[in-house]
Amino acid sequence: MILVLNAGSSTLKYGLFDESLARLAGGTIEDAGDPHAALTSVMGQLPAAPTLVGQRVVHGGTRHTRSVVVDGAVRAEIEALAELAPLHNPPALASIDAVAAALPAVPQVAVFDTAFYAGLPPRRYIYPVPYAWYADRGVRRFGFHGISHAWAAERAAAMLGRNDLRVVSCHLGNGCSATASRGGVAVDTTMGFTPLDGVMMGTRPGALDPGILVHVQRQGLSLQALDDALNHGSGLLGVSGIDSDFRVVDAAAARGDARAALALDIYADRVRSAIGALAVTLGGVDALVFTAGVGEHAAGMRAAICDGLACLGLALDPARNAAARPDVDVAATGHILVVHAEEEKVIAREAAGLTRG
What we know:
Elements: E1 2-7, E2 12-17, E3 23-29, H1 35-43, E4 52-57, E5 68-69, H2 72-80, H3 89-102, E6 108-112, H4 122-125, H5 131-137, H6 146-160, E7 166-172, E8 176-182, E9 185-189, H7 210-218, H8 223-232, H9 235-240, H10 246-254, H11 258-282, E10 287-291, H12 292-297, H13 299-306, E11 315-316, H14 318-322, E12 328-329, E13 331-333, E14 336-338, H15 343-356
Parallel strand pairs: 1-4, 4-6, 7-10, 10-14
Antiparallel strand pairs: 1-2, 2-3, 5-6, 7-8, 8-9, 11-13, 12-14
């Protein structure tokens, strides 16, 4: 039995899979501030004890370009990268430690979001800053949400019966990113050195003029306050002033709240622009994929994002879009797919494959 754990800053998603990767149980522990208590709660809901645990780890750096069995050295390397993914790596470490304490004989496998982007060419991961920043400080594009984007590309190939697809996938949840892939191999992505980059998110801004950061620090904003604003106070929350939850902001916009409506307009515009840029990188789009919470469930946002993509040969069918239940094609022209995110299944498959090997 394979237990998959996906630890967030305050939640713990889990899934239990058998050897055939059939899901036997799953859910979310909403108040997971105490990782040991959260794991105890998960264990109490499982129909069988796990013999293997797969852990989602957001940042693996340049060293971990594939999944790996967790040992002391791997744990230390994940911890060293926590500064670059402060919302993600620390909860993953806490989950790893909780499993090690409760199930010391059960092996754990770390599956990295960054691994999908390990093959990006230098022109895509080197930033146009002093080269010493890359050579001496490790500043480069890594890319994130790779587990989700890999599944989106895989499902698009299966749904359309082609293995050579040019896919732009949009993972839209509290964290958001878009990725270009060709034949299931990542070509480019919007997230960069940290999960702050790219398109607008729930509490993170996405791409910014770096001069803004210099400006607010010159005006007296401390480094800690800046870090907090970028990770916890920007995005939908920052613009709307209401909430980071897309559903709450969407409801406020429907009631006539101007700032909520503005936040959604910016969100749609940023994602649409990213799709356009990635389409040019690929030389065209065979399939546009929406996945994750907003991507799967917010028909209105999908429509807003796709408004203007006719130049890429992509247009929504309004009725199909409104009635969409993943996995489905909602396009009138081209292929626009709504795909259910299956990160836990991918992690289970990775963990099983690695330990069998």
